[in-house]
Each structure stands twice: as structure tokens, then as C-alpha cells.
Give the backbone structure.
Amino acid sequence: MKILYFAWLRDKAGCSERDVAPPPGVATVGALIDWLAAQDERQAEVFADRSVVRSAVNQDFAEADTPVCPGDEVAFFPPVTGG
Amino acid sequence: MKILYFAWLRDKAGCSERDVAPPPGVATVGALIDWLAAQDERQAEVFADRSVVRSAVNQDFAEADTPVCPGDEVAFFPPVTGG
Amino acid sequence: MIRVQREAFDAGREIAALTADNTRIGGVASFVGLVRDLGGLRSMTLEHYPGMTERQLERIEAEARRRWPLEASLIVHRYGRLEPGDPIVLTVTASAHRQAAFDACNFLMDWLKTEAPFWKREEGANGECWVAARTDDDAARERWRGSG
Amino acid sequence: MIRVQREAFDAGREIAALTADNTRIGGVASFVGLVRDLGGLRSMTLEHYPGMTERQLERIEAEARRRWPLEASLIVHRYGRLEPGDPIVLTVTASAHRQAAFDACNFLMDWLKTEAPFWKREEGANGECWVAARTDDDAARERWRGSG
């Protein structure tokens, strides 16, 4: 599973992209965040305030209950400021 | 007093501009129309249906009760189609 | 700023000139009205009332600037003979805020339709005729009454 | 049509290209968003999510074309480093009817603000910071919900 970070989430994560292999029980975006936040200090900080974290699965906006599978591209970012 | 005609009112009037000297009692746009329509056949036709005639006095939109004086520029035209 | 002219205009150049060196501007809304061909139109001739036209355009622009916080605005209206696809009118409004720019631009066009002394004559396959005013243009103008 | 690019754009040329040879178009609304300087801004850098950005812009454009009878439409969004006064985004909508063009253009901008994966970092006198999303942008997007 490919994880992408944008904007200040990337600054906190210290990287823009990483490959991860969460255990089979991690089947939603919410569960993935729980699992990532438990991996290390930096990840814990990235997801410290989940109210300011948005996500996308395979380039579509996602919610905490959106399913994730091995092979998916999952992105985390702050609320967008386009236009 | 200078009278101007635009668009199809000019076509009907047969001229775009004329100088007129209505009697002193003609003190409003409505009275001026009555007086002009009584001058000749063409003028009568120009003002036959007053619901489709708009006017301006000294380049401001006017109504039937707008005052007119000697020296004024009074224009008659159909509803505008700007833009 | 307002202009009444026979010549065509370049919307991009007008927008660029209007916004140059003003970094308070966050958004520029613009509208270009074109000669539309609903079938068989050869040309359209716009007649106007020189003098009154400029007065009315200045008033319409001033009213927009009274209602919205605009950094800059422009109305360019053409007259004379135009062909299908030719630009007739350009309105541009620039503001710190995008919604003010959009609303002011929309307002300018609605008011131009009913307050600017222009008349259109269409030349088609069957001859010439004057274009009648549209009642929905009056309605479009009226919707701004409450918000003045 | 949508484009995501680093380069500047020429609004006038884009409008002209979009409307060429289509005499059904009666009006073209457009909006240009610029980098605004509220004081001390040196530059703004737009980051985006390549791939998702194009998908989202195509969706937003398709939604506008579903809601309004558009003859043509265009979204151009820049990324990279920009300076105060530089153009960021261009939306253009062309329709037989002016109000459809205005509304669709307004809609595109409201949706871009909340649906396009861009993030802005401002560099000022006191360093750099990420621009927070605005709650009134969410409200602006929501107002289109009832009319879909």
C-alpha cells in the first residue's frame, strides 16, 4: 500500500511517500490511521489532530470508513485550498 | 426644444432629429407626445402605441410626467436592448 | 472606466491592464457578450444614443462600485455593424473577494441590458428587423432592487 | 477542458480559442484568481496532488456541464512558485445564455476552492506558513447543494 503525504503533513511526516504493509485487519482509512500513528513518533504527530486531516483513496476523497486494500494509493493532507 | 428619435421610431418619424417650439402649456413629456402626435400623420404613427415608446430628457430616462422646458433635448426610442 | 467604441476589444489585454500593479486584487470576473446566430443571421447593427450612452454606463458602473468593494472595473460596449461571433460588450470587475467580483459583473450585465440606450437591428435572409426588448431582462434587473 | 500547469496563461487567448467558430455562444463568463498581498507577502507556492488534481478538475467541470447548458468550458490551474499579482486560476464558461455562463463560472470557482487538491504555502517577511482552508469556502460550496 502506497501512502502519500501533502503540505504540512509531509513536513511532519518527514517524507512524501512510503510503502507500508499493514496487517489484514486494517481495512478502512480510520484503521489505517490508527495503525500508522502507532508506528513511530513522527506518524503519531502527523495524526495527532485528526480533525484537520483529510484523505483520498486511489485519488478520490475518502472518509474514515472508506475501505482500503493492499495495492491502494492512500493520501493524507490538510483541507484543500484550491482556486 | 430638440427632439431625437432612435431605432424604429426614427424609421417611422422619417428623421432622426428636429427642432420644435411647442406652446407654453406643453410642460411634460406626456403633453409633448400629445402635441407632437397632433402635428402630422407620421408623428401620429410614431406615438400610436405609447406603451412601446420610452423617452429621455437631457439624456436621463424620463416618464410621462417628467417636466420639459424650451432648450431641452428630448429623445424617444423603443425599450433598450443593450449588453 | 467605460468606453463606447466601434472597434473590437481584446479581453485579455483589458483584464491585464486593469489589474496591473494592484496586488490587493484577489479575483477578476469578466463577461463577454457575443453576437449569437439563432439561424440565418447575417449581421447585427447596434445603434446607440451618443452622450446618453456614456452617462448611463458611468452611472451603472458607479452603482456597482457603490454596492461592492471593487478595486477596478471596466465596461466596453461596441456599436455599429457586427457579425455572428463578434464580441459586443465586455464587463470586468476586480475585487479582493471573488464573490464581490462575480456579483458586480453579473449586476453590470443585467443593468446594461435594460439601462444602456442601445438598439439592435438584425439582418437575416428575410430582411432586417429591430430586436425587441426581453421581459426576462427586466426581471433580471429587478432582482437587484432588494439588495441595493 | 482542464489544464494543470506551471506556466502563466493568457485569459484573452483562452477565451478566444474556446469560443472560435461557435456562433451559438451568446455569453462567456470568466474568472481569474490572482495572488493577493495582504501585506509583506513575498511569494506563494502551490503544491498539488498530480493525478488526483486532473481527476477532480474533470469532475468539477463535468458537474457544471451537467447543471448548465454550456457550449464550452475551461479550467486552468497553476502550481509552483507565484508572486503577488500573478494569476493562479482561470475558469471560463460559454453558453447561449448569460446567466448560465455566470452561474456555471461561479460554481466552478466555489468547487475548486474545496474540491481541488491544492495547498498554498506563503513566504513572507517572517518566514513560511501553510494557508489554512476557509470555512466560508465550505459555505460557498454548500450553497450549490440544493440546486443540483
